[in-house]
Design a protein that fits this description.
This protein is α/β, with parallel strands linked by helices and 155 residues long. Helix content is 41%, strand content 17%. The protein has 6 helices and 5 strands; from the N terminus they run E-H-H-E-H-E-H-E-E-H-H. The structure holds 1,3,4-trihydroxy-5-OXO-cyclohexanecarboxylic acid (DQA). One of its GO terms (biological process) is quinate catabolic process.
């Protein structure tokens, strides 16, 4: 039986996790986060494809590919959250659940981080839970993809 597949997409500067403003983003590297996601996926019986790019066009191209290839998307669009209509449009074009993740609590930070172009499209938003937010997002995604109850609630 094929496992439900989830694209975990990371936007610009998240390749610097672990060294970038650790007081805000923590000490784990992006490789640590990828490992956490793969461990969670094994436990949750999901298949995870974990990717990061600093380039808006690359993120959009991966989202286009994902339209037919994956069952759900977990995305930390990083700074593009607050600026990119193009990424929001690409997500809108995918008829699959989207969960938005932010490591930091963006609402406790500068005002320009309070607006997200992605949130109106997202089934769920996880902010301020550190890198654990990715695991929480995968747990919720598993519920959305596998239970009738969750599908009814979010319709
Ligand atoms: C972030 C928050 C964004 O405002 C910021 O630009 C990031 C990371 C987070 O995970 O907390 O790069 O998405």
């Amino acid at each position: 039986m094929q496992l439900p597949s989830v694209l975990v997409l990371n936007g610009p500067n998240l390749n610097l996790l672990g060294t970038r403003e650790p007081a805000i983003y923590g000490a784990e590297t992006l490789d640590d986060v990828a490992r956490m996601c793969h461990d969670a996926a094994a436990r949750l019986h999901l298949e995870v494809d974990f990717r990061q790019s600093n380039a808006e066009h690359q993120l959009i191209d991966w989202l286009h590919e994902a339209r037919t290839r994956v069952d759900g998307i977990v995305i930390n669009p990083a700074a593009y959250t607050h600026t990119s209509v193009a990424i929001a449009d690409a997500l809108s074009a995918i008829a699959k659940p989207v969960i938005e993740v932010h490591i930091s609590n963006v609402h406790k930070r500068e005002a320009f981080r309070h607006h997200s172009f992605v949130s109106p499209i997202a089934e769920a938003i996880i902010v301020g839970c550190g890198t654990q937010g990715y695991v929480l997002a995968l747990e919720r995604m598993q519920t959305l993809l596998t239970t009738k109850f969750a599908k009814q609630v979010t319709q």
